[in-house]
Amino acid sequence: MINEQQVRELVGELKDPFLHKTLAETNGITNVSIKEEKNHVSVKVAIAKTGTPEQMQLQMQVVDALKNAGVETVGIRFEELPQETLEQFRGTATRAEAQDVLSPLNNVKFISIASGKGGVGKSTVSVNLAVALARLGKKVGLIDADIYGFSVPDMMGVQTMPVVEENRIIPVDRLGVKMISMGFFVEDNAPVVWRGPMLGKVLDQFFRDVEWGELDYLLLDLPPGTGDIALDIHQMLPESNEIVVTTPHPTAAFVAARAGAMAIKTNHNILGVIENMSWFQSKVSGEREFVFGEGGGPKLAEELRTELLGQIPLGQPDWNDVDFAPSVYAKNHSTGQIYLDIARNVIGKLEK
Ligand SMILES: Nc1ncnc2c1ncn2[C@@H]1O[C@H](COP(=O)(O)OP(=O)(O)OP(=O)(O)O)[C@@H](O)[C@H]1O
Questions:
Q1: Residue of 171, 247, 237, 227 whose CA lies nearest to 203
Q2: Ligand 1 within 6 A of 314 CB?
Q3: Among the atoms of ligand 1, which is closest to the Cα of residue 245?
Q4: What is the Å distance from ligand 1's center to 121 Cα?
Q5: ipTM
Q6: Which family does the record claim for this protein (predicted)?
Q7: Is residue 306 domain-shared with residue 159, that is, in the same domain?
Q8: How far apart are the C-alpha atoms of 276 and 43, rounded to whole Å?
Q9: In terms of domains, do 123 and 259 share one?
């Protein structure tokens, strides 16, 4: 019967699929146990990222290696390598690995923007938060993952199309944000009707086949609501920090809480709440009128045990701006300033 030393040698030759180093080099074999009477070997393996197709492939390699050595049955469990170990390997990552947004060697932080229902301003918030982060000097990408209701290209005033170079999609660069949207791949604004596996393919393509370059943040404008499509997309995303957008009406907050619950259930971390359309400020009297009610944002934040990141008043950007982007507030617009404050807060929370 094979002994522990031999198991470690055999399995130790296999490579961590993300670090491209052998499991011996990464100290990735964390436990071996052998039941001689049953000719059974169990191994516990630590790799850079679990729950991926790459893990399944490695699992098959481990089983093959041990069965070829005469083991009857194999048990295998995976865990993730500690952050310190990953940190150690980050320095040796190739440029391609460091720029692959799904690689554990990439430091990019995902921020998803969700809402309980449509029309609360989720896309407006996504676009303005992305631009604000870029204005603060961050390298920012934005995926319009609202696959059926894409509006980001129009909101940002994008006139060009992404180009494909050597089988890689080059995202559109607008106001310092690299952006990709389903809108670029649909003719004449035709409605998108497919879902399920196709949906997964499109999202996967947005992650894997887009040349994002080096990024600090990748924002995702999610589809609205708490139905099947929103859930499907939540499940397909890499772990992310989620911002929930609501309007101030208590019932809106009630629906948004369900979006928050969905985020938690699918293992995303709630970063905070943004209340949009919080008030209308009269230019004449300077008074605030709470046209859509009051209290929804703070109530939602409390319910989700998170922070209210900011409140955005009603009002349009300055449309005389030369660099016209219909939904983007200028840096010196009072709402543009609010977005900058939110962006600073987000950076503070994620770059501790
Ligand atoms: N603070 C605001 N003041 C005035 N208009 C706003 C504000 N926020 C959003 N809007 C407008 O409200 C409409 C809906 O906004 P947006 O498309 O961002 O919402 P959404 O939640 O992403 O909608 P959907 O989920 O249906 O895509 C747009 O016309 C947008 O310009």
A1: 237
A2: yes
A3: 21
A4: 3
A5: 0.98
A6: Belongs to the Mrp/NBP35 ATP-binding proteins family.
A7: yes
A8: 51
A9: yes
Q: What is the mean pLDDT of residues 76-95?
A: 86
Give distance in angstroms: CA of 85 to centre of ligand 1. Answer: 43
Q: Write the CATH number for 70.
A: 3.30.300.130
- Predicted local confidence at residue 186, as pLDDT: 74
In terms of domains, do 26 and 133 share one?
Answer: no
* Interval 203-231 mean pLDDT: 87
Is a pLDDT exceeding 60 seen at residue 194?
A: no
Q: How far apart are the first and last CA of the chain?
A: 50
Same domain? For 188 and 228 the reply is yes
123 and 23 belong to one structural domain: no
pTM higher than 0.90: no
Question: Range of 24's domain?
Answer: 4-87
Which atom of ligand 1 lies at the shortest distance from residue 326's CA? 31
Among candidate residues 349, 316, 350, the one with its CA nearest the CA of residue 333:
316
Higher pLDDT, 49 or 276: 276
**Is 62 part of any domain?**
yes
Domain contains 148: yes
302 & 208 share domain:
yes
For ligand 1, atom 8, the nearest C-alpha belongs to: 121
